[in-house]
Structures are given as C-alpha cells and as structure tokens.
C-alpha cells in the first residue's frame, strides 16, 4: 500500500487521515492499535518516540500526523491547502 496509517479508536484525526487518503484515491492501510496489539508493537518498533496518533508513513517514509499528511498530499498532488511548505 502507498500509505500506512497507525490509528486508534475514537480518534478524530485518525479518521480524518483515512478520509483524506480516500478523497485523493490513495491506497492506504489502516492499522488500528486499539484493536490489535501487534499494530501497537509494530508502531513502537518503527517510531519508539511516537506520542500521538495517527502516525503515518508514505512509501515507507515517515510523514508524521494528519496535518503532515495533508501537507504532503498538497506538495505531491497539489490542490490542497495553500501550497506553502
């Protein structure tokens, strides 16, 4: 998949990240750490300092959270946000 989103239950920004990927027809994997401890462990292995969710990777490159994904899409695809870096 193009985008990997580590998320948890009842997380508004996690849901927004998923919707954003769908809006731009970007293939993604949504890994809910609340429902599977293996995903939580995998996230810790990839980013031991992560304190918030979502945590997002694009093509195995760490992006950050929701606003970082929105900026990345804007920079890559265009048409989202004000285009500033």
The strands making up the biggest β-sheet line up spatially as 2-1-3-4
Q: Taking Cα atoms only, what radius of gyration do you get, to the nearest Å?
A: 12 Å
Structural class: alpha+beta
In round numbers, the mean pLDDT is 91
Distance between the termini: 25 Å
Query: H/E order of the elements?
Result: EHEHEEH
> Based on CA inertia axes, which overall geometry fits?
globular
Percent of residues in helices comes to 25-40%
Describe this structure as you would to a colleague.
The structure is a single chain. The chain is of the alpha+beta class. The chain has three helices and four strands. A four-stranded mixed β-sheet has the order 2-1-3-4, with helices on both faces. α1 (12-23) links the parallel β1 and β2 (28-32). The longest helix has 12 residues, at 12-23. The protein is globular. The termini are far apart.
Question: Gist?
Answer:
The protein is α+β, with helices and mostly antiparallel strands and 85 residues long. The protein has helices at 12-23, 37-46, 66-76; strands at 3-7, 28-32, 55-58, 61-64.
């Amino acid at each position: 998949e193009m985008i990997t989103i580590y998320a948890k239950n009842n997380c508004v920004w996690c849901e927004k990240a998923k919707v954003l990927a769908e809006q731009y027809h970007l293939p993604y994997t949504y890994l809910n750490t609340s429902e599977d401890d293996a995903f939580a462990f995998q996230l810790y292995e990839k980013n031991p300092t992560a304190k918030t969710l979502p945590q997002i990777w694009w093509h195995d490159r760490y992006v950050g959270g929701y606003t970082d994904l929105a900026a990345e899409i804007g920079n890559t695809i265009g048409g989202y946000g004000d285009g500033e870096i």
